[in-house]
Amino acid sequence: MDKYVIRGGKPLRGEIEVSGAKNAAVAILPAALLVDGVCRIENIPQISDVTLLLRILKNMGAGVRAVNRNTMEIDSSGLTFGDGPYELMRRIRASSYLIGAMLGRFGRAKVAMPGGCDFGVRPIDQHIKGFTAMGAETEISGGLICAQARDGLHGANVYLDIVSVGATMNIMMAAVLAKGRTVIENAAREPHIVDLANFLNSMGADVRGAGTNVIRIYGVQKLRGGTYSIIPDQIEAGTFIAAVAGAGGEVLIKNVIPKHLECITAKLEEMGVYIEARGDSVLVKREKPLRRTNIKTMPYPGFPTDMQPQITALLSIARGSSVVTEDVWDNRFKYVDELKRMGARIKVDGRTALVEGIDKLSGAPVKACDLRAGAAMVIAGLCACGVTVVEDIHHIERGYENLVGKLRGLGADILEVSETDPEDGDIKQVVG
What we know:
Largest sheet: 5 strands, mixed
Distance between the termini: 16 Å
Shape: globular
Number of domains: 2
Number of helices: 13
Strand content: 25-35%
CATH topology of the largest domain: UDP-n-acetylglucosamine1-carboxyvinyl-transferase, Chain
Helix content: 25-40%
Number of strands: 24
Structural class: alpha+beta
CATH superfamily of the largest domain: Enolpyruvate transferase domain
CATH class of the largest domain: Alpha Beta
């Protein structure tokens, strides 16, 4: 059983570089199936979700070649339709993007119901609404999502009933090779939506309006190969900013797009954190105690739900009482019980949490309930007195590349340990 062992209380100092965006990579890799040629994709994060997706693509017949640590070449020119690997697909939420990609390429798709983090109901009804409007018949049976456009996909007007990142991306992928024009209204506006559109356009697609709430896709006959570099990870950058805010110190966070971070940094500045944008980097400094604030998650450009657990961990040691409202997912406070193990005073009522700040958290054994909750546990451990042991770190490694190594480079006392027997704690290997 792998776990993180954190001895808190050490301020973070130095420089750190952010990896490519996880939420962009897990959509762009399936989108490579639409390209009749070789895609060279750069700045791919080395995370378990990406590793799984690459295995899925290879299993489906795509050529996959590593150029270097963060660059892959994907050749889908000889791809023929076939079922994807069920057991791999069901382990990752992003496998849902294969539906739009396969529908766009072959006019049909068969994909396992996706997995991923469990913090609320994740229906795909808006995805299906888009596919249906474009001429596809879709059914869910035996754990599989099956879709087929018998007469081919055609352009359509699609109004999303809720703002859905997944549906926006999936419909975009299905539409790029469809006949005619597709319009997505009430579209998601996140940076990774724009990144997917830019990737598709660089391969010959005609996608307009990404980053606004109306996206227009004009179908083309073919996508060609090319080279594309994925944007920096907004949430990873936000997580490191939160880590510095919690532990204290001064860190230059490099390879970021400051504009993407404004929805996060605005709240941290309210809490007393000094943040200075410097081109493609931000300087973060925290010397004084944190102040309370209120948080409400919203679709971009609002405060991101993927930063809510990390900020709640900070608010648990901020002066005063704060209110956190989760307006995106219906069950994202499961991690609160883990923070309470460390002494946090948090009361949850439905989608709202009341956080009463205390002076210090205390180290304790905790679990990573999901990806971002796991990041929150790490931040809490960096802030705490004593030793914190974070278990179930496979959740964290779904979305953070070399988290331990990066934090150790800033002076954090954190180790990844692997045990031969969880019962007796016989440590076989220490990583980092």
